[in-house]
Amino acid sequence: MIHDYLPISRADMNIRGWKQCDFVYVTGDAYVDHPSFGHAIISRILEAHGYKVGIIAQPDWRDKESITLLGEPRLGFLVSAGNMDSMVNHYSVSKKRRSQDAYTPGGEMGKRPDYATVVYCNLIRSVYKKSPIIIGGIEASLRRLAHYDYWSNKLKRSILLDSQADLISYGMGERSIVEIAEALESGLDVKDITFIEGTVYKTKDLESVYDYKLLPSYAQLTEDKKEYAKSFYVQHCNTDPFTGKRLVEPYDNGVYVVQNPPAKPLSQMEMDEVYSLPYMRNYHPSYEELGGIPAIREVKFSLISNRGCFGACSFCALTFHQGRIIQARSHESLVEEAKLLTEEPDFKGYIHDVGGPTANFRFPACEKQMTKGACPNRQCLFPKPCANLNADHTDYIELLRKLRSLPKVKKVFIRSGIRFDYLLADKNRKFLRELCEHHVSGQLKVAPEHVADAVLTRMGKPANSVYRQFVKEYKEMNGRLGLKQYLVPYLMSSHPGSTLTEAVELAEYLRDLGYMPEQVQDFYPTPSTISTCMYYTGYDPRTMEPVYVPVNPHEKAMQRALIQYRNPNNYDLVVEALKKAGRTDLIGYDKKCLIRPRSGDGGRGYYPKKEQGAGGVSGVPGRRGTSGGKDSQSRTGKGKKTIRNVHKKVKKG
């Protein structure tokens, strides 16, 4: 086997002596041969099973010749929009075009189309009428059945239909892609590949489909939002590989989209094998003169130790993509990869992260999950930790100790985020001590998201009292260690359930804390999350209770402004919000007021002087925010890389 980048041209194929690829992988990202990129993992797995895989990265969708670069593959095309949904990659929550694309050479925007998976597939189909097309990645995975599309403000059909693809390999894809390849290699027609877990196919005949749940038809869903909320919850309750049922969604003209149950989780040995494949661990050298690929900076010196999440955040799509069952790599595998990092010429002694969707999850929430699955109608941490939850950080502590004891390693950071409620559920505080003593550099980023319990309930987050307890213990631990380290809380505005009353409550909390966030995230309705379902339908699909949803852009601007009430640019919005919320008592000269009246101050000093610049309250650094409320990338998913670095999520094709 040649240890090099996979072919991206005919010349590369000739060097390997190939006349034809078995598979051609078309991706919306630049070609980065690193295990944080879905196309790298899937292509290397296929290579390990003896298949010839070529890469077409970011083809020009306006030119049919761009898709013929490697010729027609023997077995089929694999298509992914990339590590992010292409629409999330392109647009902020205010639907404004982003200026940079971290997955493109030099960060240049515009090298992939909107709805990239659909566009690429239709381009392929226009040239190769009969070649099998298998789609995967986060975009296809989260759009596999009817879904609300925020950017068009419509309920869209399964991406399988609009793309003209033959199959979806949803979720992480390692198991299903090998089974698909073996089925095609055996001579089976792609239309007959209907039996593989972790796939979605279309059919006009349900006679051979067994043990399934029939969802409402697409026509019914478009007519009644309440029906969509109910249908979505059925999908949500069938994302477990052990208990999930086959789902059938009817469409016009007698077409059915069939979702098979999810693929089984990988064992530790299988996880180790995935990450031991011969990756080049960098972007293709052809990108060097264009400025390289910015996304590699966040992952090059980071270690992926786990996948999956039982945290149950309503706004996160991990349940749909990676599932709730934690899969983790062995210490040996991670230590070996860490040693490889230390040999890189630009390694400075710092491992940037050891984690995954949630860093401190290292094994399933309870012992039964790996054989019986996660409970379909109960959550592991929400609203309170389950009595069967195994909250234990011993394994993670041992792993971190091994990594930081390696030669050439100066510091090991944890940046992918911890669940503070899980930390508190562990009766032993050794991890909190080790975290503060060895793995924080001045500031620890955490995600309470809000302080109003009414909103936190909709978010699937623990009550505010839990966060307050963590703040207290974090401050006390740093005090015992003689360290001055702070918490940087991530907060979200305009989530379903948040009225101006709850937004004011959050502003008052920040006032008492003496902390003003520099950047605020508006809720971003990305496909296939509970929160997005609430946003679209006005119902919480878990209870079918009506939910207040702030959809008016002006109200959303007011909610965001309240979080950054110190910013002079937000003054008028804050005044309007306080008046509408009936809280004009917060306009005045008292230390509890958010802003001062405008008259008599020359139009400048709107904020009580005693509160300005307050710092260090409850372990939060004192700094005034100057941002105008830029919105940041949704935590769906990630790949792991998002604009908010703390929430990196690997999305595999």
TrEMBL record:
Q: What Gene3D superfamilies does this protein's entry cite?
A: tm_1862 like domain
Q: Where is the composition biased (Basic residues)?
A: 637-653
Domain (Radical SAM core) ranges: 294-569
Which positions in this protein are listed as binding [4Fe-4S] cluster? C309, C313, C316
Instruction: Could you list this entry's UniProt keywords, alphabetically sorted.
Output: 4Fe-4S, Iron, Iron-sulfur, Metal-binding, S-adenosyl-L-methionine
What positions belong to coiled-coil segments? none
| Comment on bound cofactor | Binds 1 [4Fe-4S] cluster. The cluster is coordinated with 3 cysteines and an exchangeable S-adenosyl-L-methionine.
Stretch list, region Disordered: 600-653
Q: Name one GO molecular function term.
A: catalytic activity
- Top-level taxon of the source organism: Bacteria
> Required co-factor?
[4Fe-4S] cluster
UniProt-listed Pfam families: DUF3362, Radical_SAM, Radical_SAM_N
The similarity annotation says: Belongs to the UPF0313 family.
Protein name, entry field: Uncharacterized radical SAM protein YgiQ
Write down the species.
Enterocloster lavalensis
